[in-house]
Predict the 3D structure of the following.
Amino acid sequence: MVAKRLLMRKLREILRLKYEAELPHRAIARACSVGVGTVSLYVQRAHAAGLGWPLPEELDDAGLEARLFCRPAPLPAPHHPLPDLPTLHQELKRPGVTLHLLWLEYLESHPEGYRYSQFCELYRRWAKKLHPAMRQRHLAGEKVFVDYSGKKLHLIDQRTGEFVPVELFVGVLGASNLTYAEASWSQTLPDWIGSHIRMLAYFGGSPAIFVPDNLKSGVTHACRYDPEVNRTYQELAGFYGAVVIPARARKPKDKAKAESGVLLAQRWIIAVLRHQSFFALPELNAAIRAKLEVLNHRPMKKLGVSRRALFEQLERPALKPLPSERFEMGQWKTCGVNIDYHIEIERNYYSVPYPLVHEEVEARFTPAVVEVYFKGRRVASHQRLYGRGQSSTDPEHMPRAHREHAEWSPSRLIAWAAKSGPATARVVTEILYSRPHPEQGYRACLGLMRLGRHYGEQRLEAACIRADSLGAYRYRSVKNILSSGLDRVPVEETATSISPAHDNIRGAAYYTLEEEIPC
């Protein structure tokens, strides 16, 4: 079976961690949830294609895939077929089944397979890794463990007097155990990202790896083997030159530092502040910061040195310096392009190039900007709109016919009509301003323009003269005059009607008499 290729986004992450973060292949494999051999293979392909980091800006996902996979690379075949070790392990639980019996059955299917001693050695090595109990060793500046406390703090609503629960965010550095804590309104993505930014500012640097739990703000889809990290959280880690490696679900040993840090925060912050009342979040966080300094300066029992002193001695020099600019949080959303070549973000609408109708794009929106990406390439950028039902349309994204229609205005239509003649201009003016809104007459005026291209401007002007004389200011009237050829018939001037002579008709002289009528 052909090996499934990685997503180009994950391949870009491998190259970034290899050349920018300078992580070893095993660390990259853990960060990206792939095998070490896969990392080596893709790094070799990138090297053979002459690619490094950063990648060229004009190289989108399709171009990157074409550069790396111009021809399939043959996979190296193993010298001997590997036995199905999990199946062997289950079969050994049956009474009377031995490794020797299983080896003989293995040889029946694979005569060229491993000999008995190597067969047994392969199984024993694999069996030792089933449930290892290992004490973790943390390097300075390598990991920070983050989590929320299950027990919450409370604020008091000044209007109602009710208790409002708030979350307690906790972060612990692996080597020095330096602890950070703060209160936030919720565990949503903005609060989660904001707490990380303030935590790194408190540390004065960034570690290489973030180890969160599997909450939704950090991990979109939790999986023991291939977790999907939230796109915004991954962006935050990349901004600070780090990587996210979530702890396995229901494996508290993977984040033992966070568990112990949460326990300490509950004992030395929540418990200590239980008798105090707070009415605002900044006020509560100021009290937490004071208790946090006490906790970090208290000597640890086993080491006899404080967390702060150990941090200054070991961990601070190993942390990566923080960027000069602060991280601007941007949320991601996968959107379908509607038939009107707009996408919907927070109940407002933003245009993309019209050839992308019915395609799926990725939108990144910050408090100021909305950016739209298609296959890794940015295709649109708009200023963020607030409210509901508003739209931002770039004329360059519109089809030519739509763009030309959008550029029409009443004054421009009247100016065009005047080129054919004054009668055409009068008809267009009457069409536009006889409607409740001038735009309701645009289609009729554009129809007159089309008649002018078909019949010629002279005939259009003649038809408009007749329509003006009749007071028929409609597109259909002008069209009927042209189709019937009435525009070629001169318009007769209105003749003065003369009444016939008759005894019963007084005539005009009757009204000019100045005779005095008797009373």
User: Anything to note?
Assistant: Residues 281-297 form the longest helix (17 residues). The longest strand covers residues 163-173.
